[in-house]
User: Fold this.
Amino acid sequence: MQQTLEEQIDLDDYVGFWKRVLINFVDFLILALPTYALNRISVSAAESMDSAFPLFIQFVLLIGFNLFMVVKYGGTPGKLIFKVRIINEEAGYPSLKQAVIRDCFFIINAFLAVIVSLDTKELSAVSSNLVNWSPLATDLNVFFGWVIVIDCLIIVFTRRNRALHDMMAGTFVVNKIAIDHLG
Assistant:
């Protein structure tokens, strides 16, 4: 009888809350400058074009980068540095569908943030009907921010350190060495 993935990997090899916090901090340090530069370009383009379209292009590029990294390499730059991988129940990297499900809270929150940003002084010249949705988007952004916090705190209370988004997508976050030894 063949063992399931969960039976083949030691509990110590599932990455816990604090290591994930550290990985997210490293991701922030690595991606902050490129994201800032992309944001400056997008905001400038939005102002000169009098359109919110460049902001949505920025959104698609950032989400696309994250999804690409997870599907192709099994993790973000921080996860790769710390030799941590996101895997599915077959011990492979997540499919695109799994990666989207795994990131759905972040995708929604980021989309709402784009709408909220249209109501800032910097982008007040950009005419967009989406600005009318800014108050609702702000409230929803706060709500989904709390959903993300709770989602991540669930890691502390689950046996294999799975967040809600991991359970929804059928993924696990493990030390790479654990999957290197799977036969």
User: Anything to note?
Assistant: The longest strand covers residues 84-88. Residues 43 and 122 are 8 Å apart (CA to CA). The chain is about 65% helix and 5% strand.
